[in-house]
């Protein structure tokens, strides 16, 4: 990315020309079967594509009743997000902006305005994938991410054809920590201490 894009929230230019995909792509860490779209005319998972399909417009997510859209994206690991990758539109079907909420898996259209977003991005119209830098301090330990589109840029519906992320991930520890607490001491399990009840025992005696 150029220096201008490093300091701009809404850089819509395509700096991602490597056909092998960026090494810090988080595609493999997205729980694709459980991606949910609210007010979506299609399954939310259609926009989660491998890197080599990012420019494919045949599969897309479009809003249904109006131009608002919510996309809930769970991850299979704990991720640290650096950038949002987005391909939307064309034209007036491009989101006006996208607000992102980290670790808020149950947000809907009624509750989304009651919570402060982790970041808000203005979306630019374009024909290629745009990279939008994120404030990593706000997305440092993310297990799920909610994207909210409040309006399209003039059309009655919003259309998104690709969503991806750049960043780092760490394996989630699913095993619970088991701690056993003794509700009441069992004297048979413990050595008697000298001076207690006038008795004393020692190993080997």
UniProtKB/TrEMBL annotation:
SUPFAM superfamilies: Galactose-binding domain-like (SSF49785). Gene3D superfamilies: PITH domain. One of its GO terms (cellular component) is cytoplasm. PANTHER family: AD039 HT014 THIOREDOXIN FAMILY TRP26, PITH DOMAIN-CONTAINING PROTEIN 1. Residues 15-185 form the PITH domain. This is Thioredoxin Trp26 family protein. Belongs to the PITHD1 family. InterPro entries: Galactose-bd-like_sf, PITH1-like, PITH_dom, PITH_dom_sf.
